[in-house]
Amino acid sequence: MKLKIYSLVAAAALTITLQSGCKKDFLDKQPFNQVTGDVAFNTAEGAEKLIAGAYGGMYNDYHIWDYMVNGDVTADNAYAGGDNPANIQIDLFTTNSTNGNVGRDWGGLYSNIKNANEVLENVPNIQDPALDANGRRNQILGEASALRAYFYFHLVRLWGGVPLILKSPTSLEEMQKTRSSVDEVYAQIIKDLEYALPNVRTTAANKGIITKGIVNALLAKVYASKPNPDWTKVQQYADATIAGGYTLLGSFDQLFDGAHKNNSESIWEMQYDGWGGPMGRGNWMTGVIVGTGWKRFCTPTNDLVAAFDAEGDVIRKNSSISFRNVVTEGWSDDYWSKSNYPYINKYRNDDLANSYIIRLADIKLLKAEALNESSASGWSAAATIVNEIRGRVNLGVTPAADQASMRLAIEKERRLELAFEGHRWFDLVRTNRAITVMNAQRDGNGNLLNYNVTAAKLLFPIPQAELDRNPNIR
């Protein structure tokens, strides 16, 4: 069996190839993260290589780095910092279709989808009895389905309706698909996750592997993010996640000290062991947000620091932000004094620092939100969860005492708890708060930042390269 592959990033090359009658040569090429050469994936070992490729493809710019730019720089948690024009455009809401990050993220996520599709297309056809021992074939297919759902979850939140590519295109017509609606994309995400849930393993020591806890957590987040949230489903899947044996780590700071990887609170975690480790994967993102010698990226905002201070949230502030004197550095900054300059502190273990995709506090606060939104009296039950999260960092009980005030209390709690973990922008968008919050942003001197956010700026533009190669995507 020959592995079927495709690449949306290389659509232009495919167009030329198809038109010249050499389709087979192009389609038979191996992807960059698979074994090179003419390999037949017709054994259980081959199936393992395919799913390893799907996981390995996540070690790209999007999942290592851009998730924070998209989730925190776009929002009110971080300024772009540095001198990267693509990041600065995203920060200032001047992003256009030629933005480098936009093209890179689109291509990276569709490359991830390609890898998942290769598993889903090829593994069912492998005739190796060893693959069915202990249900491993179904596990692999469930993991690939969950991964594909996760990648589309990012695409739909960043771009809205996008093309649904669910199999390897074999023609120009299949390559140049139109955009599916937002509802259609969410329906496919849920379908993939519902398929995955009964098939994936219950637990895994390595929190980078898809488990039932991850699938339940993703379903909770998906149902909360749909244009019409289903709060009953959010609570159902949040409860299922919480019942999966996860517990809050006693110390908030231990989540980020590098000595507690894959801990009891972690649900899904990117795994790094350094460039010389068994995986050979170092988290290079830490080097671009912390350090000296040049101006680093993703600088914490004045507004976020003020939010920590207003809450008296010393523990989470110190775990999230480190202030340093950098007056000798040869660069300037529009927002901060260099004598007391903030850096992100959650990824402090050099290139060994793991990063959380989902952790329990996120899901608990999502359950609190579901309780609050389900009824006018739900705020009281939600308060119990919010106070549990606050209690870990020695904060008193929330003063929220009705549905409206609890809604804002949960929003604030999610911001302070999950800062720099890539969630803030998506929270603001799904709660219809992005325009109000961002247009009220001020610098440290109280001057409006004039982001002028409109509904049209809540989504990324389709990359120009995609517009050029696919006339049906406009």
From TrEMBL:
Pfam families: SusD-like_3 (PF14322), SusD_RagB (PF07980). Residues 25-223 form the SusD-like N-terminal domain. Residues 346-473 form the RagB/SusD domain. Gene3D superfamilies: 1.25.40.390. It is found in: Cell outer membrane. SUPFAM superfamilies: TPR-like (SSF48452). CDD domains: SusD. InterPro entries: SusD-like_N (IPR033985), SusD_RagB_dom (IPR012944), TPR-like_helical_dom_sf (IPR011990). Keywords: Cell outer membrane, Membrane, Signal. One of its GO terms (cellular component) is cell outer membrane. Coiled coil: none annotated. Belongs to the SusD family. This is RagB/SusD family nutrient uptake outer membrane protein.
